[in-house]
Amino acid sequence: MTSSTSPSAAPAASKAHAPRGQATHSVDKKDLGFDFNKLVLHLYETVPQFIAPLRIEKFALGQSNPTYFLVDGREQKYVLRKKPAGALLSPTAHAVEREYQVLHGLGTCGQVPVPRVYTLCTDSSVIGTPFYVMEFVKGRIFPSPALPEIPSKDRRAYWEAAIRTLARLHSTDLHKAQLASYGPSSGFYQRQLKTLLKVSDAQAQVKDAKGKPVGVMPGRDMLKQWFEANMPKDEATIIHGDYKFDNLIFHPTRPEVIGILDWELSTLGHPLSDLANFLMSHYAPSQMTHSSIVGIQGRAADLGIPTLTECLDLYAQAAGRPRIAAFDFYAAFVFFKFAVITQGVKARMYRGQASSREAGEASRLFEPCAEIAGRIIREAGGKGKSKL
């Protein structure tokens, strides 16, 4: 990863000052949970110019797929991502094979910046589970869309670079990238709505030790009815699934995206779902300051950030599509989706499966996210058909 927040950027030189997501810790070979020597042999056989000795560290922040920082005898840096050990809850979860597939396909096209992938190993006898190895991209990752690290006069350029990069991603020739069958080509939002409602209804029934249930999502029935009545026409492009600043690597000194990270949720889907994910902060109030959503509603101009309308217009221009007249469905849906995700965090806390401070903060976003989705719909005209 890079120097700022996700594992394709590298750890900072001084771990004491490593940005969020960049810190690593040393790992004793006997604590790796796999045969170190088998890994070295595999790298010799599959990674060009690899040479021992190999140094291996683990990224400090928990990743759904364990992620390691590798340095070989030439001081060449790599990132290894593997499936977790043990039984998986879902056969489609932690699909490092899909991550490799999309990175390889996009890298072949050369249209969007992604880390180069070197090898995919599906032989579990090597290190216990499938894994892949990619290059380490040196750069900057910004945890907050408010970009406090950047002077206000320069922030617009970073936002514009991120939006133009997203438009290029959505313009990828799926056949050239060999990704035409990477996911279903239609019914994206219908499937999402059905799945998320089913998950949310199950999570609502979870009870804590005192018998208190997580509870039904605020406005659940209204949201369901409005989404069903306002489904947009199908579009199918490659989508990232979690496009936001802390999944982007910027050039060390310029407002230029040089890498896109964390492709676990990528698929074929509606391109405006990615744009909505990226623009969540424009709909969130300023008092919302959780690491996942930093609200800048009404503050964009003061922060030197493009307004919501400017972002939509820039994306449309860069993507070569008509001006986006209404964005209500996409914006409301992404907050509905995030409400389901944070409801899940709350459910795991009620079961005693998520006790960290971060999890506690995330769980408190459940109701606010559902309420923001409802607010967007009301401001769009309530039950009336949205112009999509």
UniProtKB/TrEMBL annotation:
<feature type="region of interest" description="Disordered">
    <location>
        <begin position="1"/>
        <end position="24"/>
    </location>
</feature>
<dbReference type="InterPro" id="IPR002575">
    <property type="entry name" value="Aminoglycoside_PTrfase"/>
</dbReference>
<keyword id="KW-0808">Transferase</keyword>
<keyword id="KW-0418">Kinase</keyword>
<dbReference type="Pfam" id="PF01636">
    <property type="entry name" value="APH"/>
</dbReference>
<dbReference type="InterPro" id="IPR052898">
    <property type="entry name" value="ACAD10-like"/>
</dbReference>
<dbReference type="GO" id="GO:0016301">
    <property type="term" value="F:kinase activity"/>
</dbReference>
<dbReference type="InterPro" id="IPR011009">
    <property type="entry name" value="Kinase-like_dom_sf"/>
</dbReference>
<feature type="domain" description="Aminoglycoside phosphotransferase">
    <location>
        <begin position="56"/>
        <end position="285"/>
    </location>
</feature>
<feature type="compositionally biased region" description="Low complexity">
    <location>
        <begin position="1"/>
        <end position="16"/>
    </location>
</feature>
<dbReference type="InterPro" id="IPR041726">
    <property type="entry name" value="ACAD10_11_N"/>
</dbReference>
<protein>
    <submittedName>
        <fullName>Kinase-like domain-containing protein</fullName>
    </submittedName>
</protein>
